[in-house]
Design goal:
Layout lengths: L5 H18 L12 E4 L12 H9 L4 E8 L5 E3 L11 H4 L13 H4 L20 H11 L2 E6 L8 H11 L5 H6 L1 E5 L2 H10 L4 E5 L7 H4 L5 E3 L7 H8 L10 E4 L5 H9 L4 E4 L2 H8 L8 H30 L8
Parallel strand pairs: 1-2, 1-9, 2-4, 4-5, 5-6, 6-7, 7-8, 8-9
Antiparallel strand pairs: 2-3
Helix pairs in contact: 1-13, 2-5, 11-12
């Protein structure tokens, strides 16, 4: 292939760049991002809560963030369970009828592993087990999902923060990638959240509750998120939280719970919350995406045309770059 003069190639590339820029329409200021949907105890409206099946249900819905609850067994293992007792979501009363009140802390991990944690929700989930935190983390790594981990009832489990951080570290969840964008640890216990921050300062943390406005600066020393129930929220409270910077130098976030209707999701989204925790995270996502409006057929066609134009322009740019390389023209790194 004959080489073209470098000046000609360079001029052609510059001209093409100008053409690309002129072909791309001016963009309006970006709209506020929709709140992040978080699957509460997994997608617990569709599968038994805090099980791997609930994680998979969230994944099937296209939801990246899942929330869970972590407690400690009698022999020091960490398991994913919301209640302090096993009776509501397992068949523990049938398997161990003489062990009332069936507290998580009174059973070994091996005993809990025998329990059916799915039949109470639907017979389709018979045999679903209570996962250990180790199993849960490994499953999330396979699915590529992120974790909002709640330390449940930390007052019942002295030192559980160090145990959880040790498990996270052992499973690779305290590396830079996970800490930066895939993990948040939260609790209703302020002392527990503070302990996590002190022991692993890089980890993002959240406090569950609605602290008084005048107390928010104290929480901002060790919390990256303030996560209140949606029934307590006002737009002014959200603004006051977000006006403060947390321990990592970024504005505090607000993730609210447990929002299960489209109406409630739109209401809290209008207040400017950063995330919404829901048993039905797809309902939240669909209600808050573009104000809850479905794209019209014409809008969908225009989006397809725009994608086609972008592909054509990128192909033209690549052809020009290839011609430049053949002519021996190099460009400084961006």
């Amino acid at each position: 292939m004959p080489l073209r003069p470098a000046a000609t190639v360079t001029g052609s590339l510059a001209g093409l760049c100008a053409l690309v820029l002129s072909a791309v329409p001016a963009q309006a200021a970006p709209a506020a991002e929709a709140p992040v949907p978080v699957a509460h105890r997994g997608a617990s409206g569709y599968a038994p809560e805090n099980t791997l099946a609930a994680v998979d249900a969230a994944r099937a819905l296209g939801v990246k963030w899942v929330e869970n609850d972590v407690q400690r067994t009698r022999d020091g293992e960490l398991v994913v369970m919301h209640d302090a007792t096993l009776s509501r979501t397992t068949d523990v009363e049938e398997v161990f009828p003489d062990r009332a009140p069936w507290r998580v802390a009174d059973f070994t991990a091996a005993e809990i592993a025998q329990l059916d944690a799915g039949s109470w929700f639907d017979p389709l989930y018979a045999g679903e087990r209570v996962p250990t935190l180790e199993q849960y983390l490994r499953h999330l790594d396979r699915t590529g999902q992120n974790l909002l981990l709640e330390i449940k009832r930390p007052e019942l489990y002295p030192g559980i923060e160090a145990d959880i951080l040790g498990e996270l570290r052992g499973e690779g969840w305290l590396d830079r990638r996970h800490v930066r964008s895939k993990l948040v640890i939260q609790s209703f216990g302020a002392d527990s959240v503070r302990a996590v921050h002190e022991q692993a300062p890089a980890v993002r943390t959240g406090f569950l509750g609605t602290p008084a406005v005048e107390e928010l600066p104290l929480y901002a020393r060790f919390s990256d998120q303030i996560n209140p129930p949606h029934t307590t929220l006002t737009g002014e409270y959200v603004r006051r939280v977000q006006s403060l910077k947390g321990p990592h130098g970024k504005p505090l976030e607000v993730f609210t719970w447990t929002v299960n209707s489209a109406e409630a999701a739109r209401r809290v989204a209008a207040m400017g919350v950063d995330g919404i925790i829901s048993n039905y995270p797809d309902v939240v996502r669909d209600a808050t995406r573009d104000g809850g409006r479905e794209d019209s057929p014409e809008a969908a066609r225009e989006e397809a045309r725009e994608e086609s134009r972008e592909e054509e322009l990128e192909e033209a740019m690549e052809e020009a770059r290839e011609a430049a390389r053949e002519a021996g023209v190099t460009f400084p790194a961006a």
